[in-house]
Amino acid sequence: MKMRKRPNILLTGTPGVGKTTLGKELAQRTGLSYVNIGDLAQEGELYDGYDEEYQCPILDEDRVVDELDDQMVDGGMIIDYHGCDLFPERWFHIVFVLRTDNTQLYTRLESRGYAGKKLQDNVQCEIFQTIYEEAMEAYSEDIVHQLTSNTPEDMDRNLEQIIQWSEQWVKDNN
Ligand code: DAT
């Protein structure tokens, strides 16, 4: 039996905007597979050097792409990462950039233990809508959508919208 085609979804945005929370719930509700790029890199040690300024390993982007390519070609994947221009454009059928108000984001990142320059830089990343602009450059503008992610109600609404979109995509492509 031929497998039904399923879409690939990218959830991106500044750290703390709610990608992981949304992505995991979405996977449960849709049966799509959720992959957190940070976790994948950690498990496979897909690193290429160390960033002294931010005190974190540097992602080996080529190996991450190689690691996931077969699964992405098969479809049905939800990818979660705080960047988006490292992935091939052909991978995604839709790109969601989650957005959070600065004050809320500050509180969320602070309670995650971020402080000093790391905290400031991440909040600034959101203020300057860096990831949204990155997404608009890396993908066709008509597949890039911003989602407000301030409250649990926002998350419920976002979930419903993505589930509906996904169901429609499956109908249209099978
Ligand atoms: P990310 O994966 O983008 O780094 P996360 O899913 O870990 O973000 O969420 C960061 C924190 O914010 C976490 O404590 C859960 C909370 N959160 C996520 N989405 C939210 C929403 N829509 N409303 C309120 N809190 C939210």
TrEMBL record:
Residues annotated as binding ATP: 16, 18-21, 112
Superkingdom of this protein's organism: Eukaryota
Localization of this protein: Cytoplasm; Nucleus, Nucleoplasm; Nucleus, Cajal body
Catalyzed reactions per annotation: ATP + H2O = ADP + phosphate + H(+); AMP + ATP = 2 ADP
Species in which this protein is naturally found: Champsocephalus esox (pike icefish)
Alphabetical GO biological process terms: ribosomal small subunit biogenesis; rRNA processing
Self-association and partners: Monomer and homodimer. Interacts with small ribosomal subunit protein uS11. Not a structural component of 43S pre-ribosomes, but transiently interacts with them by binding to uS11. Interacts with COIL (via C-terminus).
Its biological purpose: Broad-specificity nucleoside monophosphate (NMP) kinase that catalyzes the reversible transfer of the terminal phosphate group between nucleoside triphosphates and monophosphates. Has also ATPase activity. Involved in the late cytoplasmic maturation steps of the 40S ribosomal particles, specifically 18S rRNA maturation. While NMP activity is not required for ribosome maturation, ATPase activity is. Associates transiently with small ribosomal subunit protein uS11. ATP hydrolysis breaks the interaction with uS11.
NMPbind: annotated segments: 36-59
Name of protein: Adenylate kinase isoenzyme 6
GO MF terms held by the record: AMP kinase activity; ATP binding; ATP hydrolysis activity
Annotated GO CC locations: Cajal body; cytoplasm
Annotated gene: AK6
Keyword annotations: ATP-binding, Cytoplasm, Kinase, Nucleotide-binding, Nucleus, Ribosome biogenesis, rRNA processing, Transferase
